[in-house]
Design a protein that fits this description.
By secondary structure, the chain is an alpha+beta fold. A five-stranded mixed beta sheet has the order 1-2-8-5-3. A three-stranded antiparallel beta sheet has the order 4-12-9. A two-stranded antiparallel ribbon has the order 6-7. It has one domain: Orthogonal Bundle (Cytochrome p450), CATH 1.10.630. The protein starts with a strand and ends in a 10-residue tail after the last strand. The chain contains 15 helices and twelve strands. The chain binds protoporphyrin IX containing FE. The site of protoporphyrin IX containing FE has 27 residues, from helix 4, helix 9 and helix 14.
Length: 410
């Protein structure tokens, strides 16, 4: 734990920021009801009244309703019926070209899936529409992570507002009409919101922001996870005397690769909360009202007390103490735990599992890339994204060696 005094308010009180770095500290802090979301511009940001920013009963009521959509049968439908065909359509032009930028490919794959889940009627086989949704998604994502951006804030806000207008006119309003204003629901977030507009006191603007949030929340993290998993896998395979084709045949291994990649490179390396009242955050650490608490996911995910002395190494076969997930804190914790966790990460295999196995969308995408013979392009090493202080790739060129088989589920 590190405590830093950051600023003094007009009344002369000092507010402090505490940074939590240990696994047990984060575990306890995620459970504190006094700590509320503070990373995404609570009062004026584009995510101000989205699920991620709500607190207390407002959060509980909306989460309960949206949770109804995120259940096993629907995950199965998304993983098998929606993702398989979408992956084939999105990869087709890159397969034909024999190369592509995996950051772009990952975004296009992820965003088509999350657009469908959000409730926007996109056709993955239509590259122009994919371009539009990709452009809007990137802009909303930039707005959501404004706290980490090095760009001019007002300029960025104007661009984000324009993206919301385009999303509303070209995608959301037609989607609402296609659902008969809520009379013809589908398996998507929009249908849940339309059915509960009165109960939740939602205006059209709030629905727009929630759909925009879903679109970018799922897309950005999924694309990020795909690029890191691919990169880590290819660096690790030679040490195991395995080929990409061997890995493609083992979806359980690919699922662990994704989980271990998420642990090492969380899409959101920090979470931030503000104390709404004085409280004990964890044993021996207390905060006053107004203090900020930073959750350092990257450090906690590499805590040697939990993950061992080789915590910084990539080892998808590591064994862990009971109750510790391989992905660490990368899907968050407490009331804001990621609603898309099982969708993207799947459900770890268990003899009591019913239905078809769920490997998670990222493992399925990874397998599709391997099946199509994509490998890192040795002549174009990846670049880091310069407009962000987060650990993301600006580009990651891949090239094809051969076609190794058919896509799973495809
Ligand atoms: C590998 C992919 C993903 C990662 C690493 C990830 C990570 C996270 C994290 C860390 C949080 C909590 C943030 C905080 O505590 O401040 C979160 C929340 C959330 N995520 Fe994800 N996410 C992923 C994919 C998705 C997908 C595919 C969807 C939707 C389809 C989604 C929807 C959400 C929502 C709605 C929340 C807010 C939950 C709440 O506040 O109750 N995420 N995610």
């Amino acid at each position: 734990m590190v405590r830093a005094w950051i600023d003094a308010n007009s009344k002369g009180f000092s507010l402090s920021t505490i940074t939590l770095t240990r696994w047990t500290e984060l575990r306890d802090a995620y459970r504190r009801k006094e700590l509320r979301q503070a990373l995404y511009g609570n009062d004026d940001g584009p995510l101000r009244d989205c699920l991620l920013n709500l607190h207390g009963t407002e959060h509980r009521d909306r989460r309960r309703l949206e949770n109804r959509l995120f259940r096993r049968e629907v995950f199965e439908h998304w993983e098998y019926d929606v993702l398989g065909p979408a992956v084939s359509s999105i990869l087709a032009p890159f397969v034909a070209a024999g190369e592509g930028d995996l950051v772009n490919i990952g975004y296009r794959l992820a965003m088509n899936l999350t657009a469908t889940i959000a409730g926007l009627d996109v056709d993955p086989a239509d590259p122009t529409q994919t371009d539009t949704v990709h452009r809007l998604t990137s802009k909303l994502s930039e707005g959501a992570t404004m706290a980490h951006s090095t760009r001019d804030r007002d300029e960025l806000l104007r661009e984000v507002e324009a993206a919301f207008d385009e999303l509303d006119n070209d995608l959301l309003q037609p989607a609402i009409a296609a659902r008969g204003g809520g009379e013809c629901p589908r398996h998507d977030v929009l249908s849940v919101l339309l059915a509960n507009e009165d109960k939740l006191g939602l205006t059209h603007e709030m629905v727009l922001r929630e759909i925009g949030f879903y679109l970018q929340a799922g897309a950005h993290s999924t694309a990020n996870a795909l690029v890191h998993s691919f990169d880590l896998l290819f660096h690790w395979l030679p040490s195991q005397a395995m080929t990409p084709a061997d890995a493609a045949e083992d979806l359980e291994l690919l699922q662990r690769v994704v989980h271990e990649g998420l642990r090492l490179w969380p899409a959101s390396p920090v979470a931030l909360r503000r104390a709404t009242a004085a409280c004990d955050v964890t044993a021996g650490i207390s905060v006053d009202e107004g203090d900020l608490v930073e959750f350092d996911l990257m450090s906690a995910n590499r805590d040697p007390d939990i993950f061992g002395t080789d915590a910084n190494d990539f080892n998808p076969n590591r064994s862990l103490p009971d109750g510790i997930p391989l992905w660490g804190n990368s899907f968050g914790g407490g009331i804001h735990t990621c609603i898309g966790q099982e969708l993207d990460g799947g459900v770890p295999p268990d003899e009591n599992s019913i239905g078809r196995p769920l490997y998670g969308t990222v493992a399925i995408m990874l397998k599709a890339l391997l099946d199509d013979g994509f490998v890192p392009d040795a002549h174009r090493p990846p670049e880091e994204l310069r407009s962000s202080t987060r650990a993301h790739h600006g580009n990651y060129w891949v090239t094809r060696t051969s076609t190794q088989g058919e896509h799973v589920n495809g």
